[in-house]
Write a structure and sequence with these properties.
Strand content: 5-15%
Largest sheet: 2 strands, antiparallel
Bound molecules: zinc ion
Strand order of the largest sheet: 1-2
Length: about 150
């Protein structure tokens, strides 16, 4: 039987889930921990979420990797991303020029997703290991590295 083509929205969900794992893994330390970008909470990769620094999930924003960071559930969901802190930190991290560029890009209408484009992103994240489930931290008692000290 021919395989049924995945709908755009299903495909988008699949790519986002690979992207989320990719982001959390790329910010993880050797022990499998990440820090919430907006409150500094230390947590295991699988507890963390990936949050966007700009509101909305438009095509321009959805896989804008520079503005996607690990976040805790509290910041990402309960506090709607804590975007005030998020954008403040992004501006500090990238500098005004880069930040303004990203902001402009994020607010440019890129139209609708095509399946091929999503497929390309999926391959990208798969190539980067995005679909491998994150490993559990080796030593849960290891002290945090203070990589993220909040608003310093
Ligand atoms: Zn947080």
């Amino acid at each position: 039987m021919p395989k049924k083509r995945m709908t755009i929205s299903k495909l988008k969900k699949k790519v986002w889930s690979a992207c989320s794992i990719f982001i959390r893994k790329s910010y993880a330390d050797n022990f499998g921990y990440v820090y919430c970008y907006t409150c500094g909470k230390r947590m295991q990769i699988k507890e963390a979420q990936a949050g966007h620094g700009f509101a909305g999930r438009s095509k321009a924003v959805l896989f804008m990797l520079d503005i996607i960071k690990p976040q805790c559930f509290g910041c990402n969901c309960c506090a709607s991303g804590r975007l005030d802190v998020f954008t403040y930190k992004l501006r500090k991290e990238y500098g005004n020029e880069r930040f303004d560029y990203l902001y402009k890009q994020a607010h440019t209408n890129q139209g609708q997703w095509r399946a091929e484009e999503l497929q390309e992103w999926l391959e990208y994240f798969q190539l980067k290991g995005g679909t491998t489930p994150p490993k559990r931290g080796k030593d849960a008692t290891y002290p945090p590295k203070n990589r993220n000290k909040g608003l310093s």
